[in-house]
């Protein structure tokens, strides 16, 4: 999914379920600023419940 698609998708999720929770799992090759931008977009869209999904090494 592209960055431009995140805001509308997050906003649609919030309109369906105001207490929606975002579970974020990022590949370790992903740059930190991409993760930070996704988090900021989620917060601007009204998502306040954000969790991080990890896997054991």
What are the SSEs and their pairings?
Blueprint: H1 3-16, E1 21-24, H2 32-44, E2 49-52
Parallel strand pairs: 1-2
Overview of the structural elements:
- With 57 residues, the chain is an alpha+beta fold.
- It has one domain (3-52).
- It is 47% helix and 14% strand.
- The chain has a two-stranded parallel ribbon with strand order 1-2.
- Strand 1 (21-24), helix 2 (32-44) and strand 2 form a beta-alpha-beta unit.
- The longest helix has 14 residues, at 3-16.
- It starts with a helix and ends in a 5-residue tail after the last strand.
By DSSP (H or I, 4+ residues per run), the number of helices equals 2
Q: Helix- and strand-based class?
A: alpha+beta
Global geometry:
globular
Order of helices and strands: HEHE
Largest sheet: 2 strands, parallel
Structural domain count: 1
Q: Give the total of beta strands.
A: 2
**Distance N terminus to C terminus?**
26 Å
Task: Please tell me how large the radius of gyration is.
Answer: 12 Å
Strand arrangement across the biggest beta sheet: 1-2
Mean pLDDT: 92
Strand content: 5-15%
Unreliable segments (pLDDT under 50, ≥5 consecutive)? none
Helix content: 40-55%
């Amino acid at each position: 999914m592209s960055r431009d698609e995140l805001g509308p998708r997050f906003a649609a999720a919030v309109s369906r379920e105001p207490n929606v929770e975002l579970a974020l799992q990022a590949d370790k090759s992903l740059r930190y600023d991409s993760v930070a931008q996704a988090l900021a977009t989620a917060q601007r869209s009204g998502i306040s419940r954000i969790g991080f999904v990890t896997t054991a090494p």
